[in-house]
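User: I'm putting together a teaching handout on how multi-component assemblies are represented. Below are the sequence lines for each component of a complex, exactly as they appear in our records. Could you produce the 3D structure of the whole assembly as structure tokens, so the students can see both representations side by side? Please keep the chain order the same as the input.
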Amino acid sequence: MRFDKPRTFRQSISWVHTWAGLLLGWLLFAVFVTGTLSFFRNEITLWMQPELHRAHDDGHAAANALRTLERVGSGAQQWTISLPGPRSNVVNLSWREAQPEQAQGSQSRGGGRQQPGLHRAVMDPATGELIEARQTAGGNFLYRFHFELYGMDRAWGRWIVGIATMFMFVALITGVIVHRQIFRDFFTFRPAKGKRSWLDAHNASGVLSLPFHLVITFSGLMLLGSMLMPTAVSSAYPEDSAAYGRELRGLGNAAPAPRATGEAAPLTAIAPLLAEGERRWPDAGVGSIVVTHPGDAGAIIELRQARGDSLANRAATERLLFNGVSGKLLDAPPAAEPSTVRAIQNVLSAVHLGRFASPLPRWLLFLSGVLGSLMVASGLVLWVVSRAKDAPSAEPSLAPIPRGHRLVQVLNIAAVAGLMIAIAAYFWANRLVPVEQAERNLWEIRTFFSAWGLTLIHALLRRHKRAWIEQLVAAGALFAALPLLNTFSGGAHLGHSLASGQWQVAGFDLTALACGLLLFFAARGVIRHVPRVRPGKAAPAARPATRSPRPAEATAAQAPLPLPLRC
Amino acid sequence: MKPDTPYSTCFADHRPSLNITLRSVMAVFGGYGVAALAAAAFTVGLPLPRTDAVMAAIMLAFLVYTVAVIWVFATATLLRSAAGLAIGAGAFAAWQWLAAPGGAA
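Assistant: Of course. Below is the structure of the complete assembly, with chains in the same order as your input.
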């Protein structure tokens, strides 16, 4: 493809698609995979803390939590109780001690990580005992990695991921433009036809969940938007760009914090309040309880509607405010009515952040993410396949591979199969690093990156096909054995978790097993793969293509490809 | 390119790698420039409350960026690519200047 020669619009767009996709494709694959796993980040964190697997809810979680907080968090300014739900089998408690005004002001900067005076604990819902769980980076590491990478300034990571997302968006739009037969592609798969099959796989995985890819990429840009497009914010808020964020957050709940009276009074019973919450929200139920000034005559109990992820969710849930001593309903502020623009933004970010209570849409998002990862991976492989030398026979070509092609081959192996090994190794480290190890969470992360680095070295040293096979088999074995590892390192094994309906843990084990089998399947595909004889192009002058032994295949190979892949 | 071509070309048009490099630079940085100007123009130009205008401007700016990238690679000559970016940038800058509270209006 040359831009100094006359060319069609589709040829130009195809070039943009190829290179926008390839250039940051390896990073995009990592972002897609870790982002897809982030849809289940609570479940992953739960799996990585096997100490919590035995906990179960017997319906007294709220009352037990209040009793526990009276013991450990007396004198605190505010208690927060996240009740167990479909995504968690434990109670997450936090309590905030009264802080001087200055410290309060600086809290929003830490991103909720290290707030002064804030304590967190995990409680068994049935017994009310606090559980000492192992230190783990959990699903949170994968979640953070997918939009700010690791080991660099957060702003840098976000910019890099933002730029990659923009490349992805351009690749998607140009990909749609070059596909004239978008609906026919959807139903077309021609296996074992070399480049054609990879193209079909790339098209099918792209088209099958195209709405998801567009929404997830565009909303990803939106979530980083005020950073990537600072001119929008600065021209509206010329004096103070931070005012935008404040104004945005202020739209949801702006009730001023009530003051404590200083008079001691016991809290009212929680059960009737919960019953009122359940009556008003029969589907979602109560997700969390916030008690302000517990033990004071001016105590306020706030019930919040349950969502899939109560922490990530800001404005869209309904709340009920009760007098904490008498139990009288004070106020039921409705969820803020969003404007059209804000509604669009809310829908986009709700999809991206997976803010759904029910598991079905979450699983659909997860599967779409898997398809998106496959789309990126097949696109990367397609780049190599469509440039491979047409082998004149089944023997490997002796001609040296161009250096650029070799680079793409190596990076493809390490970025696709290597990442799978790294993620599996991360889960293995979670169980194999001693529980009492200092900086345990860092050792998990170090294992992740060390494993990934080793796969790159391995890909450099081994022949192309061998490297793919070995890494896919290794990743498959590591993933498929995770349920066994869980059984023998203190977790709830599949027999137990399935029997007791512990879907968070069972779901992780079964998904790991399925992932391992898929990787084995992929490895088998590479093992069985024989470089196709291309009678049309490979035939030397002595043997013209017309006398090819397989004329049907010859015509298939000679047929013009639906898009100009070579540049 | 044939001598009777209706497009005016410059020397860089005839050097394949320079052509591609210049187009890529124009697409990435020029496209971002146009998008950034567009974001500023939409923010003050759209008849929306402040926060909504910022959100809408950011969404539209990414679409502008995408269109700009496609334009840069689709045109026949480098001159046209650059002219398209310049016209876009000029239009958005003018709109912002006219719509801004302290502007000409």
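A couple of points students might notice: Chain A touches chain B at residues 2-6, 9, 12-13, 15-16, 20, 166, 169-170, 173-174, 177, 218, 221-222, 225-226, 228-237, 244, 247-248, 251, 339-342, 344-345 (CB under 8 Å). The longest strand of chain A covers residues 286-292.
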